[in-house]
Amino acid sequence: MSLPTLRDPASLRRLLAPTSVAVVGVSADPASFGARTILNMRGFQGPVFAVNPKYAGQELHGFPCVGSIRDLPIAVDSMVLCMPRSGVMESLEAAAERGVGGITVYASGYGETDLPERAREEAELRDRARALGIPLLGVNCLGFVHHALRVGATFMPDYHKMTAPAGGVGVVSQSGALGYALMQAAERGFAMCHMATAGNSTDLDVCDLAAFQLSMPECRAIALVVEGLRDGRRLLTLGRMAREAGKPIVVLKLGRGETGAKAAMSHTGSMAGSTAAWSAAFRRAGMLEVEDFDALLETAGFLAKAPPPKARGVGIVTPSGGAGIMAADHAEYQGLSLPQPLPQTAEVLRASIPDFGSPRNPCDLTAQVATNPASFDACMRAVLADPQYGVVVMPVVYHNPAPTATPARLRNMSPLAEEAGKPICIAWIPESLEGPGPEAADASPGLSLFRSMRRLMKAISLWLAWHGPRAPEGSVGEAARAAAAALPSGPATLMEAAAKAALRAAGLPAMPDERARNAEEAVAAAERIGYPVVLKVDSPDIAHKTEVGGVRLDLRDADAVRAAFAAIMEGVRRHAPAARVDGVLVQRMAERGPELILGARRDPQFGPTVLVGLGGVQAELWRDVALDLAPVSPARAEEMLRSLKSFPLLDGFRGAPRVDLAAAASTIAAFSELAAALGDRLEEMEINPLVCTPQGCLALDGLMKLAA
User: Is 559 left (phi over 0), alpha (psi -120 to 50) or beta?
Assistant: First the structure.
């Protein structure tokens, strides 16, 4: 699959990492956007110019002011336009003449208004900026911050309060307010390197901005807030860049509602929503998705600090038995391993912990640790040295009566983490939320602070996943390409017989059948196939046969076939009197086994997607599904199966025989290849059910809906 390219980070350096800045539209009012922006440049070491004809030749807020963009004494790298929409295009032209490296546009009132003429105006601005070779940030954005250079190219006030050392986490957000809200963590010592807001993404989108941050040496992880993209496949390009750079991206998707997922003629249409497609794209891109805004920066900060895991076990060291139980509960919920200490570790713990504590994992030091700091150090060193543990979790349960003791202990813990090469995660439990304790953890290179045990354990799970193996990506084989090419051109709906023929051509196991126009033809077909057989109504107008009584199973003789044929025709007359009926399909009765549904549809953002879940008539009831972008490899298909809540039904639940999992995974992969080969022609495709047995699997029904 060819992927779209992103803007070359080198082409954005003048805009986003400038050595000189101009702010256009600065007024004397310190509360104005222009004044706020230029005041945010007070720590910047390069030249800064205000632009306003009213104050030409004077100083404005301590900076030299010129009358127009053309009067600038140098070709500045980065220019911020603090002006109404009406003046933006003229300023862009002037900036190009003066050799400006890039512009940031605060102005709103463009395409976000839903007025067609404003959308055209925004498109013209984008086209002109690209023609002139000037990168444009915005429109309708809040600007950017380069923390290492102390560039506060934003109208949010008080950037000078953000005193944390530069480095660690980069922030990219379409929402300006949310981006700056994250950036404010620098006020408490959280290490940040860069923050950029895309606004309307007129020219540069969040993927371009994140790609630039990946190129920054001081950036070690990115916190990404996404609302939408013009081409969702750009996420996959960004994900590849992040993997190559070895820098994780933690992503939050805003707007997770299912308004874009309308039920179509197949079960798949009602089960594969837009949210699931976004999550699949993040997973395919190698990004780490969180569902809560509160988790975004905590997780990115942890990943920016934590080295690769030396082991997958989690050690818990706590002065509170209750906090230890809480930690263990959330660890188990995330599927994390809590191994018990090795004998040499347990020996140190027993020697240091009172007999009313616990030398196990979780390790309960008891409140006595407050009066015996040496025992705390001994236990923490022992757990960090245990090769089973890749990370240690330390709940902080009280901040008083010794408010200086907590930050001192945290400062002492940081070198222990660095010496061991293992992260220590601090779970901040007190409702005394602020103060020197959290700040000490934020400022530490070895400690990561979380205000939720649930988020902490989820972050550890994501950290292990980032550094763990990944299933290979799928590819489209020749059988799938040939099967897709052989399908009829133009819009078409392929019901069961034709759909299964296409599936067989693509290499999938699909039940053969014979068409019968009347009861006697059905009997003749049954006798050729061999009893027992199944009869199904054959109609281009009936997608869900069971809803009209159009399926009869386990027919063992001619009389049963005749009776079934009559019952099917009566059911159709009663429930779908206008349906065209070509007769019935006669099939042999398949071996019983767990049933899956395989579905595929074209997502408007990401192209063909593939879904697998519990099948049969209960598919929509349980909605136990996994979804990914097509094509998937057999290894990834097996991961999808194992992620289902119903997976035990495939794996020998209560003594039932295990199904041929490799055959099921290969079938899913082949199905996804056909979906990918169809590309833009795919509207929907479905197998329901796919019967799975120890001997293999078999598609009993199929449906395809193709576009032109």
Answer: alpha
Token readout for 456 is 């902490």
Indicate whether 383 belongs to any domain: yes
Q: Which residues does 276 contact at the CB level (< 8 Å), separation at least 6?
A: 609, 611, 625, 627
Task: Report the pLDDT value the prediction gives residue 617, as an integer from 0 to 100.
Answer: 61
**Residue (of 261, 194, 319) closest to 627 by Cα position:** 261
Q: 298 with 324, same domain?
A: no
Q: How would residue 269 be classed by pLDDT, with cut points 50, 70 and 90?
A: very low
Contact 142, 155 (CB under 8 A): yes
pLDDT of 154 strictly over 80: yes
Tell me, what's the pLDDT at 150?
A: 96
- Summarize pLDDT for 188-217 with one digit per residue, the tens: 889 999 999 999 999 999 999 999 999 999
Q: Which two tokens stand for residue 354?
A: 């009172």
DSSP 584-607: EEEEEPPPP--EEEEEEEEETTTE
363: domain CATH number?
Answer: 3.40.50.261
Pair (328, 364) in one structural domain: yes
Report yes or no on 264 lying in a domain.
Answer: yes
Helix, strand or coil for residue 610?
strand
Residue ending a domain, among 452, 467, 482, is 467
- Domain boundary residue, one of 276, 302, 328: 302
Residues 454 and 315 in one domain: yes
548 shares a domain with 571: yes
124: tokens are: 């013209």
218-255 pLDDT per residue, tens: 999 999 999 989 999 999 999 999 999 999 999 999 98
Q: Are 190 and 297 spatial neighbours (Cβ–Cβ below 8 Å)?
A: yes
| Residue 573 belongs to domain with CATH number | 3.30.1490.20
Q: Report whether pLDDT(266) > 60.
A: no
> What percentage of the chain's residues is helix, strand, coil (to nearest 5)?
40, 20, 35
Is residue 631 assigned to a domain? Answer: yes
Q: Domain residues for 545?
A: 512-589
On whether both 364 and 454 belong to a single domain, the answer is yes
Q: What is the DSSP letter of 371?
A: G
Q: How many domains does the chain have?
A: 4
Task: Tell me which of 27 and 370 has the higher pLDDT.
Answer: 27
Q: Which residues contact residue 541 at a Cβ distance below 8 angstroms, ignoring those fewer than 6 apart? A: 576, 578, 579, 580
Question: Alpha-carbon Rg of the chain, whole angstroms?
Answer: 31
Q: Which of 217, 199, 307 is nearest to 209 (CA)?
A: 199
Q: Do residues 105 and 246 share a domain?
A: yes
Question: Are 203 and 326 contained in the same domain?
Answer: no
pLDDT value of residue 619: 62
Q: Which two tokens stand for residue 605?
A: 């953002």
In a domain, 28, yes or no: yes
Is the confidence at residue 272, as pLDDT, over 80? no
Q: How many CB atoms lie within 10 A of CB 121?
A: 19
Please tell me the pTM assigned to this model.
0.91
Compute the mean pLDDT over every residue in the chain, rounded to the nearest whole number: 92
Residues 48 and 112 in one domain: yes
CB count within 10 Å of CB 446 equals: 21
- Concatenated DSSP letters for 439-461? HHHHH-SSEEEES-HHHHHHHHH
